[in-house]
Design brief:
The structure holds 2 protein chains of 2 kinds.
Chain A lengths: L8 E4 L5 E6 L10 E6 L6 E4 L13 E6 L2 E6 L8 E9 L4 E4 L3 E5 L1
Parallel strand pairs in A: 1-9
Antiparallel strand pairs in A: 2-6, 3-4, 3-7, 5-6, 7-8, 7-9
Chain B lengths: L2 E5 L2 E3 L5 E8 L8 E6 L5 E7 L6 E3 L7 E6 L4 E6 L8 E8 L8 E4 L3 E5 L2
Parallel strand pairs in B: 2-11
Antiparallel strand pairs in B: 1-3, 3-8, 4-5, 4-9, 5-6, 7-8, 9-10, 9-11
Classes of the chains: A mainly beta, B mainly beta.
Chain lengths: ~110, ~120
């Protein structure tokens, strides 16, 4: 069972806005920056969001991150078929003294 | 361009040992923490180990503590993972990844292609 809790699946139709949640604790999300990763089958993950809300260069502004208290969210607006992938949240945990991942959310574009 | 290239994966029997290497280029290696992350077949991502830029601070997942050792050779721009007493449940793709900062923070901005380790009798 992952320290960070994500819904196992999410879905939406093209053009819709979808949100993926990531629930944690004071010792992790409540204290440290959150990152989000996108992973397509058979490929390495890619950093999508860092420092809670920042997009690395090359990441479309359709992807946005937010954080409130001990929870974080990834929002994808203007959903496209190519957004169908697995999404993971991650952060550092001060109690575990180590990094933690969420269990991952499989996004399906209907 | 940042490049991370893993090598050393393979098929091992339970109890065996293996060294993974990650050759890097395109950035000042000793300025950044580095990590190993694994993914078992059909499963999610799991942190294995992280090491700070100077190599002084390390972190290990409980599942590998005492069996795996992370190290780095900064002059050679190479990251290593020594894996001992391998178990069937260690079977996974092992990714080498670069942290965004010199200290571990779970912000991996570059990843290798992955190296498959299979532990089976």
């Amino acid at each position: 069972q992952s320290v960070l809790t994500q819904p196992p699946s999410a879905s939406g139709t093209p053009g819709q806005r979808v949100t993926i949640s990531c629930a944690g604790r004071t010792s992790n999300i409540g204290t440290n920056y959150v990152a989000w990763y996108q992973q397509f089958p058979g490929t390495a993950p890619k950093l999508l969001i860092h420092r809670d809300t920042q997009r690395p260069s090359g990441i479309p502004d359709r992807f946005s991150g937010s954080k409130s208290g001990t929870s974080a969210s990834l929002a994808i607006s203007g959903l496209r078929s190519e957004d169908e992938a697995d999404y993971y949240c991650a952060t550092w945990d001060d109690s575990l003294i180590g990094p933690v991942f969420g269990g991952g959310t499989k996004l399906t574009v209907l | 361009e940042v490049q991370l290239v893993e090598s050393g994966g393979g098929l091992l029997q339970p109890g065996g040992s293996l060294r993974l290497s990650c050759a890097t280029s395109g950035f000042t290696f000793d300025n950044y923490a580095m990590a190993w992350v694994r993914q078992a077949p059909g499963k999610g991502l799991e942190w294995v180990s992280v090491i700070s830029g100077p190599g002084i601070t390390t972190y290990y997942a409980d599942s590998v503590k005492g069996r795996f050792t992370i190290s780095r050779d900064n002059p050679k721009n190479t990251l290593y993972l020594d894996m001992n007493s391998l178990k069937v449940e260690d079977t996974a793709i092992y990714y080498c990844a670069k942290e965004s900062w010199g200290v571990p923070a779970a912000h991996l901005d570059s990843w290798g292609q992955g190296s498959l380790v299979t532990v089976s009798s």
